[in-house]
User: Fold this.
Amino acid sequence: MSTQSRYVLPVGEMGWALDAPVRTEFTWEYDQGRSDLLALYEKGKRQQWNAVDRIDWEQDLDPENPMALPDELISLYGSALWNRLSPRQIRDLRRYLQALQISQFMHGEQGALICAAKIVQEVQGIDAKFYAATQVVDEARHVEAYARLLHDKFDIVFPINPQLRSLIGDVIERREWDFTYLGMQVVIEGLALAAFQGIRDHAQNRLAAQVNAYVMQDEARHVAFGRLALRDYYPQLSETERDRREEFLIEACYLMRDRLQPFFAWEAAGLDIKECLEVHEASVAALKFRARLFSRIVPTVRDIGLWGTRVRKAFEDLGAIQFADRDSAAMLEEDNRVAEEHDAKNMIEKAVSELAAKPN
Ligand SMILES: [Fe+2]
Ligand SMILES: [Fe+2]
Assistant:
């Protein structure tokens, strides 16, 4: 069955075409590479995987609470509004909220796929082209995995959030290559990493936890790539040029913070949007979620040197400045470790079920 028939809310056109000017760079120097970028390329090649067989698609989601996430993570939980809902409405709301989040991951991953391809085209060195080519395959796999989770397991899909679409459009339309990195590798992927982590670490459903753990293992490399490329480049820019990047960054962060209200899920559940928004805005769950979303972006932004007064002020205002001292390399290492832990668990489960199936 098509995605079109699974959309819960009207989606309008089934596609989106952008006429953006992209600069195409060829290089005739094939033997020049920065060792750190080439090492990342090697890692990217070694860590390729197939979503068809690394993930155990036999597992199902729970009809009551698909990814088995704690209700405490829902901003409406415990409010007077929540207490008025029937068990059926609560079940619907859980399903819509979770499908909404996975749908945004899927659409965002398509944005990442297109941006990675754009980086292959517009970046100058062969080392970065090589690495970005591995990322193109990674992002295709992420779209595939989230689309399968939605189609086969949730059986519903939400349209792309307008703010996410607007940021992706803005990134694609910029002519300078570093905006693609900054917008996609640092901001959108940084936010995505934090959101994936929320599911990976809280979902009691193994399928949901697994998909996010494996995607995160790849994303950790992508963020590392953005960091390496920009850390070398930004110190070479003039103050005015750096200011433009900082402005873009701040605007993107605020836009993304405002994207977080799950309007579509409330609408699909037939709830009063205004009342939901009031409860949402006052909830501790939403506050914590928002601050945590920037946990991956802040240390990266500091590393790449876009750390002017305005940027620091914005992160203070967003309630995320405390993440500045986090060791982003260590967090990325940890993502790798958790994914490997899931592989080990899978191996054990497989061995146990094979043993159980053996006749005595
Ligand atoms: Fe991705
Ligand atoms: Fe990515």
